[in-house]
Structures are given as C-alpha cells and as structure tokens.
Write a structure and sequence with these properties.
Helices cover 87% and strands 0% of the residues. By secondary structure, it is an all-alpha fold.
Length: 166
C-alpha cells in the first residue's frame, strides 16, 4: 500500500506542476489582454455623411456668409466712390491752381520797350506753352484713368477669387 500511495503522490505532484505551468502560461497570455483590447478596438477617423446632409451644410454656410460678403462689397464700393470723389476734387484743385498760375503770368504788364513783332512772338510762345500744358494735362488724365481702370479690374478679380473660394 505504501507503494501505491507513493505512486499517487508522484502523480499528484506531476499534475500540480502541469497545472502551475498552465497557470503561468495563461497568466502571461492574459496579462496583456487590456492592451490588446485597446489595440483591436476600431476607431472611426472619418465619418461619411449622406449627400443631402452635406448640401444642407453648404447651403447654411452660404446663407451665413452671403450677408457679410454683400456688406463688404458695399463698403468697398463706398470706399471706391469716396476715392473717386477725392481724386476729382484734387484734379479740380490742380486745374484751379494751374489756372491761377497761368493767369498771374498773363497779368504781368507787358513792357513798353518791345515792338509789335515781339508782342506777336510772345503771344505765339504763350499759345505754344498753353498747348504744351494742355497736352501734358491730357496725358496725366489718361494715365490716371488707366491706373484707376486697372485698380478697378484688380478689385473685381480679387472679389471674384474670394467669391469662388467660398
């Protein structure tokens, strides 16, 4: 009986070793379980929206932005009109100053020592000077008009770009 008892004890000890080995194997496999749950969990990075929802969002954005754009356009046109009026006032002032300068030159009394030929020569020189002055004024005005047209076109392009970006 001692021999069968000793065989039972050996068998029990080997079973305990197998169970300990199984427990350590399970422990090592299960110890990483929380991390594996986190890694295997799916995360939605992008959410797909139906097209009607997207269109509604675009329309609401457009409805929200349109009044601001209209306000900015009116401010821009008001500012352009203000600059245009200022330019016209400056041009009128420049013409007035040129007229005063020219009239002060013509008011100087002619000297009596010149002959009638000298007076005629002085008159043609004055006409030539007036002609040059008018030609220069015309060129300045053409340049200013071209510059304003370019500025206007540039503002329109920028406005179209901003409208297209939205």
């Amino acid at each position: 009986m001692a021999a069968s008892l000793s065989a039972s004890v050996v068998s029990l000890q080997s079973s305990l070793q197998i169970i300990d080995s199984s427990i350590s194997t399970l422990e090592s496999g299960v110890s990483d379980f929380p991390r594996l749950c986190k890694v295997l969990q799916t995360t939605r990075h992008f959410e797909l929206l139906p097209e009607p929802t997207l269109r509604e969002a675009q329309q609401s954005l457009l409805d929200e932005i349109t009044p601001s754009i209209a306000h900015l356009l009116s401010l821009a046109s008001d500012h352009i009109e203000k600059l245009s009026r200022r330019e016209q006032a400056l041009r009128a002032k420049a013409e007035l100053q040129e007229g005063r300068l020219y009239s002060s030159e013509s008011r100087q009394p002619p000297s009596r020592s010149h002959s009638t030929f000298g007076d005629r020569q002085k008159g043609s020189a004055a006409k030539a000077a007036e002609h040059r002055r008018l030609v220069q004024k015309k060129e300045r005005l053409q340049y200013a008009v071209e510059r304003l047209e370019l500025q206007s076109k540039q503002c329109e392009r920028q406005l179209r770009k901003s409208m297209a970006a939205q």
